[in-house]
Amino acid sequence: MILTVTPNPSLDRTYEVHALKRGEVIRAETERVDPGGKGVNVSRAVTAAGRRAVAVLPLGGAPGALVADLLDAQGIEVAPVPIAGATRSNIALVEADGTLTKINAPGPELSAAEQELLLETVREQSPDADWIACCGSLPRGLAPSWYADVVTRAHAGGARIALDTSGRALLEALRARPDVVKPNAEELAEAVGRPLATVGDAVKAAEELRRWGARTVLASLGADGQLLVDDAGTWFGTARVDAVRSNVGAGDSSLAGFLVAGGSGPEALASALAHGAAAVRLPGSVMPAPADLDPAAVSVTADVPVDRVLEEAAS
Ligand SMILES: Nc1ncnc2c1ncn2[C@@H]1O[C@H](COP(=O)(O)OP(=O)(O)OP(=O)(O)O)[C@@H](O)[C@H]1O
Ligand SMILES: [Mg+2]
């Protein structure tokens, strides 16, 4: 089983509008409501891959109840942590030309008792977990060192941790030695405080994260592919995508692909690439099933093309 932890989940409302005009009443053509959050996406991707996932989520108010119902209808197991505040609603506006504008709400503040219950729920679920994937931003009330605490507690209980977060929450967690971190190019550039122009720049940045405590760095570089750096070596891979439909959740799908394939080494990297590419080929945040994967489009090499210029340079 893979346990996912999403401290700041959301109810995602997507509206299709003709065009955005500031200061006007905009009538939406369609409205969609989805359970949201990076760990929720990882749970959906793990489940789509045919493996069991349990999602630990603080949930509150009517939006929280709706998130629980929607996940239940999708066959996603939830270990809810009831909170007094209401789960946030995030708004996405999609214009006719495909432009996406998002408004992410800050979310409720967790009380000390709720924070403790969240940690306790993770602990209760951990014995069955091959991996604990901690994903996304921290809500108000959780200290930037919160993920570091989760890593330390998980290791004490013998579980392995994969972490997909950014900024201070990522930097502070490194000293607790997470087993895997999965930054994208921007998150990696921000963590080391310098831009990444080439694959070699990304390798150096990943090595730095390892010096600061990460055991394995799986860096996703958007259309440029992915990089894996661990004790055993460095690998780079790409997966051909002929028609990009939606990169929403591609990173979350990649992390799920990496973990369901064992969470280490070049085979797991190949699985991460296959899942990322398949997610990009599918609409919206639909997660790939095994039949959607195209392993023949994936290539992985230990001969890392360090001089390759990144198409999506990160600053
Ligand atoms: N435009 C693209 N063309 C081909 N593959 C892509 C493209 N975008 C993403 N991918 C695949 O998906 C993987 C993850 O994408 P990316 O690095 O953008 O993740 P991310 O920014 O963490 O995404 P998110 O957090 O929104 O899920 C990439 O490493 C790549 O394998
Ligand atoms: Mg991401």
Can you offer a commentary on this structure?
- It is a single chain.
- By secondary structure, this protein is an alpha/beta fold.
- It has two domains: 1-8 and 37-85 and 105-177, Ribokinase (UDP-N-acetylmuramoyl-L-alanine:D-glutamate ligase); 179-315, UDP-N-acetylmuramoyl-L-alanine:D-glutamate ligase.
- The protein is 34% helix and 27% strand.
- The chain contains nine helices and 16 strands.
- The strands form three sheets. Strands 5-4-1-8-9-10-12-13-14-15 form a ten-stranded mixed sheet, with helices on both faces. Strands 3-2-6-7 form a four-stranded mixed sheet. A two-stranded antiparallel ribbon has the order 11-16.
- Strand 12 and strand 13 (226-230) form a beta hairpin.
- The radius of gyration is 19 Å and the shape is globular.
- Magnesium ion is lined by residues 164, 184, 251.
Count up the domains: 2
Task: Write out the distinct hetero groups bound to the structure.
Answer: adenosine-5'-triphosphate, magnesium ion
Kindly report the spatial arrangement of strands forming the biggest sheet. Answer: 5-4-1-8-9-10-12-13-14-15
- Give the helix proportion (percent range): 25-40%
Q: What is the total tally of β strands?
A: 16
Low-confidence stretches: none
Q: Which CATH-level-2 architecture of the largest domain?
A: 3-Layer(aba) Sandwich
The shape, in one word, is globular
Number of helices: 9
Overall pLDDT score: 96
CATH class of the largest domain: Alpha Beta
GO cellular component, one term: cytosol
Keywords: ATP-binding, Kinase, Nucleotide-binding, Transferase
GO molecular function: 1-phosphofructokinase activity; ATP binding
Family: Belongs to the carbohydrate kinase PfkB family.
